[in-house]
Amino acid sequence: MTLYVNLAELLGTRIEQGFYRPGDRLPSVRALSVEHGVSLSTVQQAYRVLEDSGLATPKPKSGYFVPVSRELPALPAVGRPAQRPVEISQWDQVLELIRSVPRKDIVQLGRGMPDVTSPTLKPLLRGLARISRRQDMPGLYYDTIYGVHELREQLARLMLDSGCQLGANDLVITTGCHEALSTSIRATCEPGDIVAVDSPSFHGAMQTLKGLGMKALEIPTDPLTGISLDALELALELALEQWPIKAIQLTPNCNNPLGYIMPESRKRALLTLAQRFDVAIIEDDVYGELSYTYPRPRTIKSFDDDGRVLLCSSFSKTLAPGLRIGWVAPGRYLERVLHMKYISTGSTAPQPQIAIAEFLKSGNFEPHLRRMRTQYQRNRDLMIDWVSRYFPTGTRASRPQGGFMLWVELPEGFDTLRLNRALLGQGVQIAVGSIFSASGKYRNCLRMNYAAKPTPQIEEAVRKVGAAAIKLLAEERATD
Amino acid sequence: MTLYVNLAELLGTRIEQGFYRPGDRLPSVRALSVEHGVSLSTVQQAYRVLEDSGLATPKPKSGYFVPVSRELPALPAVGRPAQRPVEISQWDQVLELIRSVPRKDIVQLGRGMPDVTSPTLKPLLRGLARISRRQDMPGLYYDTIYGVHELREQLARLMLDSGCQLGANDLVITTGCHEALSTSIRATCEPGDIVAVDSPSFHGAMQTLKGLGMKALEIPTDPLTGISLDALELALELALEQWPIKAIQLTPNCNNPLGYIMPESRKRALLTLAQRFDVAIIEDDVYGELSYTYPRPRTIKSFDDDGRVLLCSSFSKTLAPGLRIGWVAPGRYLERVLHMKYISTGSTAPQPQIAIAEFLKSGNFEPHLRRMRTQYQRNRDLMIDWVSRYFPTGTRASRPQGGFMLWVELPEGFDTLRLNRALLGQGVQIAVGSIFSASGKYRNCLRMNYAAKPTPQIEEAVRKVGAAAIKLLAEERATD
What we know:
Oligomer: homodimer
Number of domains of chain A: 3
CATH topology of the largest domain in chain A: Aspartate Aminotransferase, domain 2
CATH superfamily of the largest domain in chain A: Type I PLP-dependent aspartate aminotransferase-like (Major domain)
Distance between the termini of chain A: 42 Å
Radius of gyration of chain A: 22 Å
Number of strands of chain A: 16
CATH class of the largest domain in chain A: Alpha Beta
Largest interface: A-B, 67 and 66 residues
Number of helices of chain A: 15
Strand order of the largest sheet of chain A: 4-11-10-9-8-5-6-7
């Protein structure tokens, strides 16, 4: 672990354990530098991590303070998944979630839906309409297997922000990030292979492993800094002897569901590990553009010098999921990915591709992103505040550094499946934690979406979740 | 083989061998009935097959005649594919085809593109534009995993025409027929399994088998009546002992590339075979609505009483491929198909689904289909005429009964890969026959698209193909 992460964790623990109280001034950068024998910039980096996690607030010319406004819930514990590859279960619960249709009478906190009501999306909608009226009807023809060239050019430019120097021909457009992930997995693994994943992990990627006959090896993951490199290294060493691990699948930026951004040095270290053990990395960056810090974080792909990283992303979180436009930068696996894309959908619809390319080219994407990032960051603080207020004492919550998902941990033994059933009658739905584990762990956790503009209805929905949790806990204790 | 097919083949052979000459009156229905000891209706059915194949023309009150207008090229020979399961090759040549971008300077006769310039498509384009302007922005949201309900309702009604009594909940919308086929194959087979296919067969389905680690067993297929049931039965019997055949994948209606419609009795017999050997049937009906005869032919699915047929289709040939909207009626495999669809693309874009549902509901689909069927049938006659005129003597050609593809067979030993290379410099592209075989057979065959309204440019392109073939043949003979 790098020095600044180490230091940030040390300070974070002290704050959370009450060693420093709300309102207290934290030690100065200089004092910490002397105390721990590290450089000033290392301390500054550590404070930035704490700031992103809401544990420290800078005041101009006076240093860092423990925020007074509210006491933050403690961070979720690092998971203890099975130390062996497992068959993936939980399809029934995922199906229950994706079967759901948007309904006016249900506040849907469970799905990965962004806010699509922003006026900054209007030029995109106008573009979609315009393409349908064009004389040459480009939306009706087969697209080339790579996808619309103008969009790939715009994407190559966009990806410079994450440190990637790629050309349009290094990219393949896909039907959403799902297709990017499934083609990547199929391009790198065979049925029976094992894929190492962060834990908790995106259920869509895990269900893909299941559907393709692969197993998942869940690696313990820190809610602030991401997948444990030590545990991963151990797994890869064991793999040499007994398990054919072919790829690592993870979401290092604005992780779903934990919201952390993996520090740059750890991204580099992960890549080095992958190189040493010769495995592919499937990097899901679908929330990467929604980082609350500017400039946006780099991808692992941006450090990739031998083409082993397959970067997967889409516009489903930044623009709208209904467009079903994603992409993959498959590195050395390009030919395999093209074959897998061909057999999966033939080609991708051109109309939304052209509309998005125009939206990017006209400079409409950046202002839209800025607006959404600000909205989501503000909503995060509010959602954490609601959880502090309405949820049972001892509830833990993540500190998302991007995106619009909060991970909430209730006391061990609590069953969010029961909670969700109780809530459905009350017009609220959440995502149960167990779908984020290959083996149904995290039953005491849940994920809530905070993308939409806050309304009294949403606050009431969150309050209902908390109240229902308190009630279930009390019942459990009564029957103990 | 049923009686009428037998009789049709007998008469067809006599006509093609010159026993009856152009302009000759063919034996009366009564005479044939007596001669062959079959019922009058059997003879009538046989004449209908000959009529569809262009070998007989009825004249009111005078009986059937051999057409005088032109001499039709002979039918392609029945293929003699390998009598064992093979790994599928030919990906490079498929990639060459699907890599191609529409270019003004190339007449693309190779791809499966319908004519999308018909004014009967205008309401659909207006619908697409209208949805982008709707206040509730339905095009931006995640769809349910099943697809838009209104479209599934319309599809259930449409499928009554092919004899299928299904409800909206028996259908799953897919991202084109490709996704319908790949989810169906994955829902019924495991890597290493063997799938029996018609031969020649649609390259997309075969590449899917390849990509999923399955093998193809190509079954000889008659250019008028479809897959050989005797050969299939033999293969299934052998399979019991040595080969795990899990499914039969075929296109019985307006077959791609041969254009035949499998007679109804043979569809029933195929289903009985599948039941006896307990294998699934994956039925591709993507050209079924484009049959030149009315009412459209029934599907095998329409006879299915135990849910073993997975019917796959799309609007790519009837409306436009760029919409990427298909569907699958997966019978007893519904749950597996849903899982496979989820991991393949998550869900399908709602905007084109809503637009198509409105187009169908407003009664715009039938007039459009009528117009396209008439256009394609007329173009077929023209294309066959051009092949008769411009191609080398002895060239054989299919007699499509629907769709817009002609299969052309050149003398044995001819290489259409070389032909295609020679043509590229001349601004014409065809589909080489070898991609329609798992093992690269049919190198002397090619497929040409006749969807577009005939122009002097298209006739010139076909003439160039013929002239280049004649030139290559002469060169080959010179070096012999």
